[in-house]
Amino acid sequence: MSRRATPLLIEDIWEAVEKIERYVSGLNHDAFVKDDKTVDSVVRNLEVIGEAANRVMWRLCGRSSRKTCRFSKRSFRQSATIKYSSMCP
Predict the structure, then answer these.
(1) Domains of the chain: which residue ranges?
(2) Where are the beta strands (DSSP E) in the chain?
(3) CA quadruple 43, 41, 31, 11: dihedral positive or negative?
(4) Which of 8, 56, 72, 83 could be stapled to 4 by a disulfide with Cβ–Cβ 3.0 to 4.6 Å?
(5) CA Rg value for the chain
């Protein structure tokens, strides 16, 4: 596992977000789902975001507060899912 510094992980998250924005710029939902390369690129960058966010969260939470951290991750995941679902037709 990489031991990248937390600021670099946050930079990775921002870069992945910017890439996703570029990839989907000008696409409607139908055009997006029909373009396998764009879908794969977006999914890959979502994985980068998830992995980096997971590492940052564990560093911020510390090992002593695992229950709190798990709850926070679950809440974030549910919130993100709800927001993403509301964007889809």
Answers:
(1) 6-87
(2) none
(3) positive
(4) 8
(5) 15
Q: Tokens standing for 88?
A: 């889809």
The pLDDT, as a whole number, for residue 1 is 47
Closest CA to 42 of 25, 55, 24: 24
- Asked if 24 and 38 touch (Cβ cutoff 8 Å), the reply is yes
Asked if residue 23 has pLDDT above 80, the reply is: yes
User: Who has greater pLDDT, 84 or 19?
Assistant: 19
pLDDT at 56: 85
Q: What pLDDT, on the 0 to 100 scale, is given for residue 85?
A: 47
The rounded distance, in Å, linking the Cα atoms of 13 and 9 is 6
Nearest alpha-carbon partner for 46 in 23, 72, 69: 23
Break the chain down into helix, strand, coil percent, rounded to 5: 85, 0, 15
For 35: left if phi > 0, alpha if psi spans -120 to 50, otherwise beta; the answer is: beta
